[in-house]
Amino acid sequence: MQRFAILILAAAVAVGAARAQAAQPWSSAAPESAAALTPEAAVELALANNLALARSRVDLAAAERALSRAWNGAAPGITLSAGARRSSATEAVTLSGSAGVSVTLAPRTLHEVRKARASRDVQSLAYETAARSLELEVRKSFYSLILARENLAVLRQSLATAQKGYDQVEAKRRAGLASELDALSARVNLENLKPSLESALTAYESQEARFKQTLGLEQGAPISLVGSLAEASSVSALDFSGLSGEAPSVAALRASLESARVQEAAARSATRSPSLVLSGSYGPQSVNSGPWTDNGSLSATLSFSLDNLMPWSSARETADKARDTTVKTESQLKEALTGAEISVRSLRRSIEQSLASLAARRLTVEMAERSWRLTEEAYNFGTKDILSLQKAGDNLQEARANLLKEAYNLVSALLDLEYALGLPFGTLGR
């Protein structure tokens, strides 16, 4: 009976533990799945979480706030006051109050609004440029990680091939069909590949850590990149006719030039524009609780500073500096337009070269794979030595690595050209 009670108690404890485990699906025992990332998903994460872009959003919000308050210069100034005064000579108590309103009307208020609007436009384009540059960085980093990942796959495959070759040589040595030197050479070739794989893996992990930082992800968050360089570089030919556009940096310079012109116009206006001040006041008084007397006034003042007309005045100096800024910005825009045109032509040539090179690289890989298989068969039949087999393996690894590198060069050049022309990313690869 006692043994039966113990069995019942053990069963109850087991059921309770199972229920507790079921009530905690978040337990650390459950494996955390890696987030599958496409280039578009990575861009969305970066736009939402990147810290540098968040600071740019703060600057844009500040510019929009300044624009909404630019009319403050024309807002009326209102004053209210109340007081009591007792004279020691007459012992009279005087109660008083006052209210005043003043408005300053000057052309500089309109210029302040224009300056604030131009500054907002500049900051808006600066934010768009930052977002566009971030998207370019994310997409290129994404495919750079793909390149590193596929290079790791090539190195692992080469290591597996070297291991297979060593096993074959070792088996032939034991059978008396290969020398000890051949086995040692195969072993050295195998061991030399291991540090290269470890180094590539370390570089990949560092690159992945920087990519996570750009996306605003925790370093411990697992990610899985969805895509391949073969798919991204599957472009047979491109027609560049009809392609046109403007880089974000050039558009930002145009906005800066407009802002500089507004600043110059405001500075010039300040040297020759008068200001009109309208004011009114009302101040009732009462002595010894007697009847209230009304006191008030209205005034209009037109003022103009003759000092601003002097060539040595600070206002004229400010206007001259604003003109200098406009001239320099115009020069920067012309230089940027020329540089953008040269960059677009260079990128087009690079893309055409990569397209031609990719076709040759694919043929080279096919030839290297065929050569490796034939050399392996010849070595097994004893008509080729171990050095020929190793050389065929090295040639195959180099051909595969060169193909991957050329595919990345093409993808990178396509992204750069889309950025330079202000096109949506992915336009040229469709």
**The level-1 CATH class of the largest domain:** Mainly Alpha
End-to-end gap: 78 Å
CATH topology of the largest domain: Outer membrane efflux proteins (OEP)
Shape, principal axes of CA atoms: elongated
Task: Bin the strand percentage.
Answer: 5-15%
The average pLDDT is 80
SS content category = alpha+beta
* Strand segment count: 7
Overall tally of domains? 2
Order of helices and strands: HEHHEEHHEHHEEEHH
**Proportion of helical residues:** 55-70%
The helix tally amounts to: 9
Largest sheet: 5 strands, antiparallel
CATH architecture identity of the largest domain: Up-down Bundle
Computed Rg: 39 Å
Give the name of the CATH superfamily of the largest domain.
Outer membrane efflux proteins (OEP)
Low-confidence stretches: 1-31
Overview of the molecule:
The chain is of the alpha+beta class. Helices cover about 65% and strands about 10% of the residues. About 20% of the residues are buried.
